[in-house]
Structure formats: C-alpha cells, structure tokens
UniProtKB/TrEMBL annotation:
An MF annotation (GO) of this entry: methyltransferase activity
Family: Belongs to the N(4)/N(6)-methyltransferase family.
Organism: Comamonas guangdongensis
Entry protein name: site-specific DNA-methyltransferase (adenine-specific)
Enzyme Commission designation: 2.1.1.72
Classification of source organism: Bacteria, Pseudomonadati, Pseudomonadota, Betaproteobacteria, Burkholderiales
The DNA methylase adenine-specific domain, residue ranges: 157-458
Amino acid sequence: MTQETNNLAADLWALADLLRGDFKQSQYGRVILPFALLRRLECVLESSKPAVLAEAAKVEKMAIAEEAREKLILRAAGGLRFFNTSPMDLSTLGESGIKANLERYIQCFSKDAREIFDHFKFAEFIGLLNDANLLYKVVQKVRTMDLHPKAVSNYEMGLVFEELIRKFAESSNETAGEHFTPRDIVRLTTSLVFMEDDEALTKPGIIRTIYDPTAGTGGFLSAGMEYVHELNPQAVMRAFGQELNPESYAICKADMLIKGQEVGNIKLGNTLSNDHLYASKFDYMLSNPPFGVDWKKIEGDITDEHTLKGFDGRFGPGLPRVSDGSLLFLLHLISKLRDVKDGGSRIGIILNGSPLFTGGAGSGESEIRRHILESDLLEAIVALPTDMFYNTGIATYVWVLSNKKPAERKGKVQLINGANLCGKMRKSLGSKRNVMDEADIATITRCFGQFEVVDAQALNKPAEAKSNRGRPAANPKPEAVKTFASKIFATHEFGYRRITIERPLRLSWQFSDERIASLRFESGALNAAMQWVYAEYGQPYWQDAADCDLYGQLDDYAEEIRAHLKRDFASLKEKQIKDLLDARTWLAQKAVLLKARALQSAIGSAQHDDFNAYDEAIKAACKRAGITLDAKEKKQIADAVSWKNPAAEKVVKKVHKGNSNPLYGLFAVNHEVIEYQADGELRDFENIALDPSRTVDEVNEAYFIAEVQPHVPDAWIDASKRDAKDGEIGIVGYEIPFNRHFYQYQPPRPLEEIDADLDAVSAEIMALLREVYS
C-alpha cells in the first residue's frame, strides 16, 4: 500500500472519532465502509450526472417498468452500469431532514447499486446516526473526501477498502484474511495462471472469463482483469464470483459496477452448498478459500451431492474430513473447467499445507489428490513464505492446475520452493510480516514459465533477526543459507500402494483358577464396574451354590450403587447400569463360571501351547461333564482361558487344496496347504512407491521379499485388501511431501564446541552460586 492510499484509509477511519461513545467499536466499520463506498460511487458518477438527470426527466414521463426505465437511463451514464437520479449529493443534503434526504438519495440509485447498501443494512445505521445527532457531522466529513477516479484509481481504491476492512476486522475481533488476500499474493497467483495464455495477452478483442468462488472484496477478480489489460488493453474480461459475507459481497459488487462489469455475475451465498453459477464454465479461476474451516453446517448437502451425483457432481472423487473444507473448493473449481476442445481452463488456488499430505491411502483427501494427479491436472505447486497473510502465519502454497497442459508438462508436476523469497515489512499488518516484491514474484514466474529444475540457489536476503534474550552461545550454530529451488516430478512419483502385512496368531490356553474366576464378570464395558460391585456388596454373601437366593440381588443398595457408578464410571449408559443392577446378569455369568469349572475338572489346569487342539479338547470335556455351551459361552470361555504367546504354535484358520503361496499366506506344512489366523495386533502396513514399468504384483512382491521377509519370515501379504478402482492388491494413496523434497541437511555443531559451551555455562552458574552463599 502506498503512503497516499494509507493516508486516505486513515482519513476515512478517522470517522471513528465521531462515533466513539455512541457506537460500539465493533460497529465502526459498518458505518465507515458504506459511507466510503457511497462517496466513491458519487465521485465516479460526477461526470455523467447531468446527462443522467436529463434522461431521467424524460423517462419519468413514460409509463414503463423499472427495468426498462433503468435501461433507458443507462444510455446516458457514459458507459457505467449504474446511476443516481437524485439532483442532490452529499454536499446538498442539508442539515434539517438529513435522514429523509439521505434515504431518498440512496433510493435514487439504480437497482444493483441500491442492493449494495441493503447488504450493509445502511438504513438501520442511518437511523442510529440520526438518533445520536451524528448523521450530519459524518456526511459533512465524508463529502470532503476526494475519491474521484482521477485522484484514486480503482486499484488504489481497492487497497483503501482492504485497509478499512482490516481495521474493521481488528476492531470487531473478526478475521480480516477471510475477506481479502494480500496484493502481493494476488499478483503472484494471477501471473502464474495467466502467463501461458498468449492469445489473451496479445490478441485484440479476445474475450475471457474469470471466476472466484470465494470472491471476498473482489481482489482476485480485479487483479486478473488488470493483469490482462496491462498487456492487452483490447481484451475483454468478464468477471464472475460468489461470496458468503454480505459486506464483502457488497464491496465486490460495487467494484464490479465501477469497472463496468455485469454485476449479476456476482452472487451472494455459500458456494459449496448453493452454487449460483452451477451451469457455468470459465477460462480462469482464482481462489483463496478459508484455511482449515469445517463444513459441518453443510455436511448434508455436500454428502448428498457426493453420494447421489458422483462424478456427475462436483465432489465425485471423494470428501475430505469435515474439519477442513479446502479441498472441496478445489474440487468445485475443477468442476468449472472448460472442455479442452473449447479451449480448456487454468486454476490458481491458495491452500495451506494440509491438502498436500493429510489423509492416508483410501481417504477422501488421498482420493482427491489421486484424481487430480491421475487426470494430469496439476501443473505446479509454489511454497510461499510464512507470515504472508493478515490472519495467519502458517506455511501456504499456490496450486496451479490446468486441463490444457503444454506437451513438455504432460505427466509432470513442478514444485517450486519460494519460501525464502520475501522481505520484512516496515510495519506488520496483523500476522502479515513479510512481503514479496516484484523481483521475488518475477523469480517464481520465470522459473515456472521456463519449466526448469533449479538446484538450491543462494538468495541475497538478510538473515533473520535473532532474539537478544538469554545468554548467546560462544560458538553459535551458523545461519542456514536462504535458498530458492525447483524440482520436476512425474505424477506417479507422488503415489504409493499401501499393502497390509499379516503375521500368524499364536495362542496358549489354560483352565487355571485365576483365568476361570474372571468369568464371574462380563468382559465388556461392565467388567470393571461389576468387579467393584462384587467386592463391595457380593462378598462374602453371594455363594456359588445353586441354592443361593442372594446371588445378584442388589435392590437394597441400588441407589448408592447408581450414585457411585454415575460418579466413577461416567461412561456407562443408563441401559448398562440397569443391566448391572439386574440379578439375571449376575446369574448368567455365574452359570458360565460354573461350566468352566466343570470343564476344568475334565481337562485339568495344565498349560497348553497349541490352540489348534483347543476345540477338540473342549468337545471331549463337555461330553464327559455332560454340559452344553452356546456360541456366546464358548467365546467367553475361550477368551478367558487363552492368551497370546510368541512361543506358542500358530493358529490354523483353514486347510486349502491346491498349491502353496507363502507370500500371500498359503504355507506348505506336512504336505498340506495351511492358512493361519492373523494376529490383528501384529498387523502392519507398508507403503510401496508406484512403478508403472512393472506389474503391481511384481512391485509388491519384490518389496516384500527385500524389506519385510528378512525381518519377519512368518509374515504374508493380505491379498484381500485391494484397491477399489484398479482391483489390484494394496490401496493406492497419493501425497505431496513438499518439505521432504526440499529438505537441506544442516550438520550439528562439533561436540567439542557444544562441550565448551556447556563448560562455560556451568562455570558461570557455579560462580553465581558462590556469590549467593558467600
């Protein structure tokens, strides 16, 4: 922002001095912004006002509809798409009756301009100002502001509005970055998206459309149009957008009005749940969606579109987790790509680091990345410096996508590390402490345009200012050199296949008194609570004999038990508490306990390390003891008397006919092909890089033999875990580990230097202690 625009914004914000005391600080912006906008519109209309008034006088006599009347008056508006038919302006409203005059003045704007003030709820604040006897004072101050286009360009006025919004956000504890994007980032993103369209930049009369689904105050739309017009004044740019915030929408709509755009193309509403431009496709798309904002409020709409429409809708590839909707905006933009035969489209979107790597194989995020990369839509990702945005200092990235890649970019993705291309601002604006100048932007755009690999290249940037707090090291670690780099990868290099590695279950079993005793209590959520109840109220009164009438009877203690459970076992639901207080629950467990004791008498209490013999032993014992077990009882007893033991025999799941295949869990044992039961606790996963030059099985098996089998010889690949799309073994995943590719190893200081520092600090501490105790 230049000093002139900064001063102008400060002058406008000085209206807050008049409002202080009668208005809350959070309301200042709701007064200042619409008044600044009103004055700007008035200045823009100044030259066409006489002709408009003359034409309006003629049209007023015609008995025609408002829409037709506006079209006739617009002919006299000098190319503008709005007008005001009031003979008054801010300087002639007068003091008496100023409220009625100002309201009438607003009503004399054309419909689109009027609606802008409706979204600001301007009439409400006019009434509040009038009640506080401040309306005339505010009008008198605003009318002196020179906001004429000859004095303040559209670009500069945009900066003024952004500064006012930033101040408004600070005063009302809102987030300024939700409403607009810093101009240096806008300039960079716009340059990357537009630079490859030679026709738009050179051909006279070419028509292009530009779209922003998170339009804010229209910064991206304005910058895109300005960028093209700088290089090709004869090009026709048509702007489209949608914005959720009414105030930001009003400013964007006013900006488009002043620029002569069709303001009907700027929509108000939630882009994800209610796309007002659902049938439209665009040449260029630019967006800075909110970082890390959840979409829980519209989850039903999004999920329905994904489920019912699939790839015929916007969200066919997948849905990210509900806590971050950034990738939904990216999918939305992809759905707006023109068909390649119609010229194709290009996208520039600013995202935080999460969409690069969040979500494992098969997750919604991974499937979205997979769709983008396998469809060869991603051209480049540029890492931006931190502290570039008004509301956050986190790392951010510009993604550039296109469905009309030039031949040399086919199947390739360029990663550009511009994290050090910035300078410090003289004064921070919110969280924004860094700024990219024209040279920094040119470095990135040149690298992108030339599609070149750049090894870590030292930059002539000042070192970071270090804190002067604490004791400086005698031998400080050298400052890492700030570098710029670029790398190019094949799209498949970001992909991997996650295979599931299983190992056999090994169980021992023993009908010991201790293990059998655990059957007195349910094994699930009630286990701990039942143990407490038994210790407090059951012993020694409950007997295991069949004729014990007291067993499980808790009616006399129900209230105190319930109070204790509510306090110390808060996770228990009401139904579970009722079950615990029911004698039938205790008697059922007692029955299982007694059956297990009968089995113990038949089997003995020795330890067995081969669980494969368990079923036959139980059958024989049941027959000898004359008892039967239902499925639930069998499982309870088996769980109670068995445990995992690495020294035990493997548990056989099934004996197969046919050939063995140990890589996939079919082992040849004593002339039989055995499949073992898998141990879920030993289950592991391996990510194997995609290799299109070989079959999936060849890649998986080579990796397993080299990396897994030498360490766990009894492991195998679970062939049932297959990718939903290609049907091959393993789930395909994609991630873009940006930092890993550009990591530069910094060796630690020599141990001698570290020891010297420690000795010096220790000596200093001892000297201080001697002073204390002397």
